[in-house]
Specification:
globular; four-stranded antiparallel β-sheet; mainly beta
């Protein structure tokens, strides 16, 4: 079992930046390297959207097209803390951002399977508004 706790959300003007953090812990910490971990978001009245992840097998980042070139996902060497650096934020980026982990899906597939993750956090609100 894993616990994921997000932080770093807030209110920012269009064009601004935020960095989200995700701290991972729990009895199954030793299994973390086998999970693809990333971020998804959900805006009011909209479906969940996979935003970014790091593949468990290749360590490469993957992004949904809406954030490519603006967002960067990274992690600490121990793989227990993940970050999402968000630059050039737009009003349409407004959403609750969740960190999530799954051992079965990875890479682009992880971004698609937003309703199938094994573990996810409570989320942190990001609001982009003037």
């Amino acid at each position: 079992q894993l616990q994921l706790v997000e932080s770093g959300g807030g209110l920012v003007q269009p064009g601004g930046s935020l960095r989200l953090s995700c701290a991972i812990s729990g009895p199954s910490e030793a299994s973390i390297p086998f999970y693809t971990i990333g971020w998804y978001r959900q805006a009011p009245g909209k479906e969940r959207e996979g935003v970014a992840c790091i593949g468990s097998s290749n360590g490469q980042p993957y992004y949904t097209k809406a954030v490519e070139g603006r967002f960067t996902i990274s992690r600490e060497n121990d793989k227990k803390t993940y970050y999402l650096q968000m630059n050039s934020l737009k009003p349409e980026d407004t959403a609750v951002y969740h960190c999530a982990a799954d051992p079965f899906y990875e890479n682009e597939r992880w971004l698609e399977m937003v309703n199938e993750y094994d573990y996810w956090g409570q989320g942190t609100q990001v609001t982009v508004s003037a």
